[in-house]
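Lab manual, section 2.4: Encoding a predicted structure.

Procedure: take the sequence of the chain (138 residues), apply the prediction step described in section 2.3, and record the output as structure tokens. A sample record is shown.
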Amino acid sequence: MSRIIPKDKEYFFDDNMIISQTDLKGVITYGNRVFFQVSEYEKDELIGQPHNILRHPDMPKEVFKKMWETIQAGKVWNGLIKNLRKDGLYYWVDTEILPVRDNNNDDVIGYIAVKKAASRKDIQENEEIYQKMLETQK
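Recorded output:
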């Protein structure tokens, strides 16, 4: 699978954004330096693992259901996600997931997620929404 970010361009994103890439099933195929630093995992601990290894239990299943429906339809998804670090702590990210297409731009061959730290206001709003979603999920 080709990488969406050329090796010589990674530096541009490393200090600003968290970047991860998966195959069609959500298995991690790439992450930038910030992705591994923020998650507290080593590269070899995450490459080849399902991205949901980072899913915090406070995240409603409905959020990911809608996310998968959107990206599998070839569209861009944006939302706030609470992720779980290796050490058990968590972090919130404002996430945009885009389909990665083959060289002919015909078929989706994976997904790339670009993430930045979520604002305090967005976190507060989404915590309330997600809590209500979790209550109806049970």
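Check your result against the sample. The first strand starts at residue 18 and ends at 22.
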